[in-house]
Amino acid sequence: MGWSVDPGSAYAAERLEIFLGIPYAEPPLGERRFAPPETKKLWAPLTLNATAFSPICPQVLTFVHLFSFPSSFNNTDEDCLYMNIYTPKFDHMTESLPVMVWIHGGSYRYGAGQEYDGRPLALEGVVVVTFNFRLGVLGYLSTDDEVAPGNYGLLDQVLALEWIRDNIGSFRGDPKRVTIFGESSGGGSVSLHSFSKMSQGLFRAIIPQSGCAISPWAIYRPPHNVSDVTRQLASQQNCSVASSQSIIECLREVPAKELVRANVLGPPMIAAWAPRVDGHFIDKLPEVLLLNGDFERVPMFTGTVKDESADEAKFIPDVAQGFNRTFLEQLFYSWSTRFGSKTDLAFGAVKCEYFDANKGFAHNRDIFIQMKSDYGYVAPHQFLAEKYSAMGPPVWTYSFQYRSENDVTPKWLGVYHGTELYYTFGAPFAKEIPCPWGCININPDYADWTEQDRNISKTLMKIWTNFAKTRNPNPVPGMHANLLPFDTSTKAYLLISNVLSNTTNLKPRRMRFWNYKLPRILSGQMSIDSVCFSSASKHVACDIFITLFFFYLLSACFR
Q1: Closest to 441 measured CA to CA, from 36, 38, 121, 50
Q2: Which residue in the list 124, 308, 386, 420 is annotated as catalytic?
Q3: Residue 73 phi, psi (nearest 5)
Q4: How far apart are CA 236 and CA 476, in angstroms?
């Protein structure tokens, strides 16, 4: 490694050693802003004091104040490319341990590695790594050419994985047994790595959660371009837009906080600043690579939660009371405008698929949430699992539908986006483990965990770490049956509710609508009547042309 960590310079906490704030890249300042990261040079003195978290990457802090950090937190800096390592220290341990590398979510704009407490997972016998990477404008701005190719946040992740490959052995980790996992835009990032030649060989299994490369918000798709947003930002900052070089030279002089606060208008997707096909990190759109079988064929465990888009609905006036039919129709039409000239077709098809008997305001609200959840999360994950498994790699999927009886959020939110993270990261057990530096991590509004919460959390940690250890989530003590692998015929998945059970074929009609019918309707290959007047139409295979045309039209979605 070229350096060492003094035994007294890292925290020990109940059979764990924890190393905080390890730099893996040179600070992305000056000429390194809007440029690929550079490997961290040796530091002096060679012994690093790894007892404090680094600053987090520049961002608007509203998000992290809401979910993790106290309202007084303001420790951000462009010099933020650091990682944290949680490693078990068991008696008489001689062999290396599997490594779980967490890529945090936050709409490609928010978040930090240190939000996620790796201690409970590490006690399951794995080395856990969390880290920061560039976000928002600093992570994804691009002129759509070689002057500023973009995807710096993803390239930071590649460099972090290379650092782990070269150094994790000094932390009792096995560099040949690395699993990458992440949620939301972190899940999108995890999945994108499987389509990047730059990332090949850096991991042996993936867990994309509530977000994947096929999600319509995961990557820029035609007709949208990041360079349009870049030129908009440059004009706001009084920069010349005569050339890509003039734009980047000027924006490198603008303080990071001003860039982060700038209000730019992008396509209706998860963020104005997001990954793009750059010919470097990724050569083609992920759906093209998927259908061509051009991806890293490693085992995958993936899934979604029951009410993914419920948290987005919180901002709709009077949402708790629900929607009347007229307002629901207006919401559907407004959403359908993302399809441009195909707006009316999309609106008609979605209305026919999701409108049903008038069952009241609350039902109307729930239908809107399910439509957006299916579009943005469930259908893309099912499409990925189906095509991925058909190419050979083993796939397991899950649907997380558990809600704690102590959850104090409004009941209409159901099992909202990110809920499973409390359980996969062992939040019900966090207070039982020493944390001398003062842990900051995602936590729900309630702190009284039930025995059921603890059981669910213990089981999920066992499933996730079993997958990291063996590339198979089985066996899980206490389960009545092994988790069945996903295949194109049964489409088996693990239903995680008050009890865990194997079941098959998640939302078959809705998945057929999004992944097969709607592409054909939008391309003129199928009549909208197939949705409006057919209650049991048969599965129709969608050829590659129709699928690619669908993703051309699916330019975006709200998170």
Answers
A1: 121
A2: 308
A3: -70, 130
A4: 55
514-416-309 Cα angle (round to 5): 40
The per-residue DSSP string of 10-25 comes to: SEE-SSEEEEEEEE-B
| CB neighbour class for 355 (10 Å; exposed up to 12, middle 13-18, buried from 19) | middle
Beta-bridge partner residues of 303: 209, 398
Alpha helix segments (H runs only) across 113-251 = 119-122, 136-140, 152-167, 185-193, 226-236, 244-251
Clarify whether 184 is annotated catalytic. yes
| Average pLDDT, integer, range 97-119 | 96
Q: Catalytic site residue 312?
A: no
pTM: 0.92
The answer as to whether 537 is a domain residue is no
Backbone torsion region of residue 318, taken as left when φ is above 0, otherwise alpha when ψ lies between -120 and 50, otherwise beta: left
| Domain span including residue 173 | 7-303
CA 508 – CA 303 distance, rounded (Å): 15
Q: Taking each helix axis from N to C terminus, what angle separates 185-193 and 152-167, rounded to the nearest 10 degrees?
A: 70
Total domain count, the chain: 1
Give pLDDT tens digits for 362-412: 999 999 999 999 999 999 999 999 999 999 899 999 999 999 999 989 999
**Of 375, 378, 323, 377, which is closest to residue 350 (Cα–Cα)?**
375
User: Which CATH number characterizes residue 42's domain?
Assistant: 3.40.50.1820
Of 363, 366, 354, nearest to 414 (Cα)?
A: 366
Q: Is 44 a domain residue?
A: yes
DSSP string over 402-471? ---TT--S-GGG-SBTTTHHHHHTTGGGGGGS--TT-------S-----HHHHHHHHHHHHHHHHHHHHS
Q: Is residue 422 part of a domain?
A: no
The reported pLDDT for the residue numbered 558 is 37
State the average pLDDT over residues 245-269.
95
User: What tokens appear for 540 in the block?
Assistant: 């129709």
Active site annotation includes 92: no
DSSP-based three-state secondary structure for 180: strand
Mean pLDDT, to the nearest integer, of 109-125? 95
Q: Which of 404, 417, 420, 555 is catalytic?
A: 417
Which amino acid is residue 254, in one-letter code? V
> Is 394 contained in some domain?
no
Q: Strand 127-131 vs strand 205-209: parallel, antiparallel, or unpaired?
A: unpaired
Is residue 557 within 8 Å of residue 216, measured between CB atoms?
yes
Question: Residues 54, 68, 107, 184: which is the catalytic one?
Answer: 184
